[in-house]
Amino acid sequence: MSAPPAPASAPALPAPAFPWDEALAAALGPLGWTPDTFWRATPRELAAALSGRGLGVRDAPTRATLAALMAAHPDG
Residue 30 needs a FRET pair 20 to 30 A away by CA distance; which of 6, 50, 62, 76 works? Predict the structure, then answer.
């Protein structure tokens, strides 16, 4: 007897695209970087520089907050 086939896993969702326009605007604006500095920096370095200025990524909303927003602004 052979083993039953493994269940098929759900296909992986594609990762969201990197927000290049927003990153460039943040680097050239509030951070005052030159384009050369921006293109030499890693995403982690950009995130650290933004965080140091209080401009970093904020925590995601909780499930309760998201549910309240969805209830307040239903789609179509």
Answer: 62
